[in-house]
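Input record (one chain):
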Amino acid sequence: MTAPDDWRRQGQERYLKGRRWSLQHYQLYREGWDHDHCEFCGAKFSLAAEELNHGYVTDDNDRWVCEPCFLDFQDEMGWLVRIH
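The corresponding structure, as predicted from the sequence alone:
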């Protein structure tokens, strides 16, 4: 379990609790978009080789979480993973 005072906690449970996710290569949310950030640690997702190129994304392709943060918060948040 992740500590209650973990620095990554910023109230994400309000909009991420119980969401469905899938592990995917990063894709742009819409035209003109060039990156996203992990909802917990702020790591940058983009198409650039030096940044995160895959992680967990919500079903609406709006929210991204890196693999380490996903594993840390999955049980607590009640996340479901969609298998392709």
